[in-house]
Amino acid sequence: MESILSVDFSVPSLISPFKIRDKSMTKTILSVSINKQKRPSLSINSLTGSYIYQWTSKKNHQHNLSLLNISDVNFEETSTYSIDNFSQYQQEIYSDRLIPTSSYTYKYNNQDANKLKNHYFIKIHLESSGNILRTLANPLGFNKEVTDGNISYFVNLWNKQMKFSQYLKTSIDYRHYWKIDQKNSIAIRTMGGIIYAYGNNDQAPFIKKFIAGGANDLRAWQSYEMPNGRVQPDSENISTLYTGGVKFISCLEYRFNILKQLKGAVFSDAGNIWEIKSDVQDANFKWNKFIDDIAVNIGFGIRYDFQYFILRSDVGFRLREPYENKKWQWENIKIPSAQFNFGLGYPF
User: Fold this and answer.
1) DSSP per residue over 93-109, as a string?
2) What angle do CA 270, 272, 276 make, to 5 degrees?
3) pTM of the shown model
4) Beta bridge mates, 45
5) Confidence tier at 81 by pLDDT (50, 70, 90)
6) Do 228 and 71 meet the contact criterion of CB atoms below 8 Å apart?
7) From the CB of residue 111, how many other CB atoms can be counted at a distance below 10 Å?
8) 281-286 long-range CB contacts below 8 Å, 24 or more apart?
9) SS3 281
10) What are phi and psi of 132, to 5 degrees?
11) Closest to 124 measured CA to CA, from 110, 109, 138
């Protein structure tokens, strides 16, 4: 179960104490969000505030600069699990964190809604966390902890000592659309990303890592259900909340009209998530095992175009599980083995 409350306030200009020459189509966005995820193993609560500049430099080029994004994340244990019983690797991931970040996102989209033509979309994201606080930690006398020769600093927040995250994250998302005619098209998506923790922590925070599965990629798996690498899923362990430090996804979809506003699609998704420095070797990314770790699904979908939004339902079948010895599992193409997904808009 997941609940989200988000409030955004935007102003059509760049708000700053310094004089900035406004570019075309500028915007300042202030946002606050509260997120609560309830899982059988634990609950994840986060409070996030953001200050973002958005502008268009020229046609089809959009920029987002998040000057400041601060998240306060904490975990609540259930009676079934105790974080103290987890490995050091798991404790680092599922620990309360203060996550101060700055990021830059570039988007290019040459779609023309008034013309029937091929088009593509690209998004590049760069993000960093904790570097300023780490630099100020000694001068400001932050509390610190030494573990195996590594120093971690803490800040006092809400009368609680919290470790802050330090990491670098980057991702690239490329999509290409071929228009066959007014009723038929082909869409592909390839996305890859990496998040690397260092300095103040060994593992990147849970909410900043990559996930696979759900309504938009690897649609035969639920969100957080896709294990890392070739790890076998374990429904009795907290690691059922799978996240990764590395992600690669590729999707292919053929879209067609059925009747007026009713549209259909057949698709195939492939990819996985991995860890960089996990204590579970099968979860870690290795170049020589990269291809063998790829999960594959196929499926079909129905979409209804309400003009202002699209209601979507996709059905996915697992064709290849990396941890299985069998290469292809065609026997899974049956309704009892299907994963149903519902969403608004196209998956990509």
Assistant:
1) HTS-EEEEEEEEEEEEE
2) 155
3) 0.88
4) 36, 74
5) low
6) no
7) 12
8) 282/228, 282/229, 282/230, 282/231, 282/323, 283/227, 283/228, 283/229, 283/231, 283/244, 284/228, 284/229, 285/229, 285/245, 285/246
9) helix
10) -65, -45
11) 109
Cα–Cα distance, 305 to 75 (Å, whole number): 39
User: Model confidence over 311-337: pLDDT tens digits?
Assistant: 999 999 999 999 987 789 999 999 999
Tokens at 251, concatenated:
């999707």
| Residues whose CB falls within 8 Å of the CB of residue 41, separated by 6 or more in sequence, listed in order | 78, 80, 81, 237, 238, 240, 241
- What are 43's two structure tokens? 């609950």
Q: E strands within the chain?
A: 2-11, 27-38, 42-58, 61-77, 97-109, 119-129, 143-147, 150-157, 160-164, 167-179, 184-197, 246-259, 262-274, 295-305, 310-320, 339-344
Q: Which amino acid is at 257?
A: N
Residue carrying the six token digits 């409030």: 7
Contacts of 148 (CB under 8 A, 6+ apart): none
